[in-house]
Amino acid sequence: MSYDAIVLAGGAARRLDGADKPALRVGGRALLDRVLDACADARTTVVVGGRRPTARPVQWAREDPPGTGPLAALDAGLRRTTAELVLVLSADLPFLDRDTVRALLDGAEDGDGALLRDPGGRDQPLVAAYRAEPLRREIALLATEHGSLGGLPLRALTAELALSRVAGTAPLASFDCDTWDDLATARARIREHGTVLDQWITAVKAELDIDLPVDTKTLLDLARDAAHGVARPAAPLTTFLVGYAAARAEAAGADPAEAVAEASRKAADLALRWAAEAEADARQNGSG
């Protein structure tokens, strides 16, 4: 589904003592980069706010004058898009994922768009997908009615649109970082036992510019077999070699996910054979 993305990265961040909120890090990655990763397949991505380094190329826009509110910022970003479908996000969503983005885009196929409804039942107009034509129409009407978009709340816009609600996605997808406590909570959650590996793998893939499904269980099983069957340091060395072999196979035309699975299988079988030999020798020495 072809769409453009607008990420609102302005605002005074008063409850963060004026810090550059989009640049604050959760899990070693800037909040803005985490949001940009969730919409990596957007045809055009426009970030509305002050220019700053980003992990992938974007276009930049700024409301005129700066600091006149989210509706004026949305209008500035919308002027740089051409797709019929526009994803609109705030820049402080550390747990936004691609599945939630896809659910919003799918939900926007009917009516004027779809916005996320958080677990508390609140609508999130800055985690939403909109049809561009009605969005432009209503923004123009509001500007004519009020003389300016400055200071107008987003609800003045969403109240005039026929929007569906998307719920039941990742429960933290709408969690935003407005305060230092929010930031601390996000940083703690990302290290929770049940999710830390997935979060870490996602961060490493982004850092290394790798877009590859990772079968975490297969790799962990391989590391376990190498550590137990050979020696503990064999675990990281073996997984590194599996990655190298998979990259070489991909360069030769193989499917990358299948290449990882095949290399993992071969290395795991080798580790098990290695362990079986050691066990057989131990039994032999014991009987002798």
From TrEMBL:
Occurrences of domain DUF6457 (ranges): 193-278
Which GO molecular function terms does the record list? Answer: GTP binding; metal ion binding; nucleotidyltransferase activity
Instruction: Give the UniProt record's GO annotations in the biological process aspect.
Output: Mo-molybdopterin cofactor biosynthetic process
Domain of life here?
Bacteria
Alphabetic keyword roster: Cytoplasm, GTP-binding, Magnesium, Metal-binding, Molybdenum cofactor biosynthesis, Nucleotide-binding, Nucleotidyltransferase, Transferase
Q: Which InterPro entries match?
A: DUF6457, MobA-like_NTP_Trfase, Molybde_CF_guanTrfase, Nucleotide-diphossugar_trans
Q: Name one Pfam family in it.
A: NTP_transf_3
Q: Where is the MobA-like NTP transferase domain?
A: 5-146
State the protein's name: Molybdenum cofactor guanylyltransferase
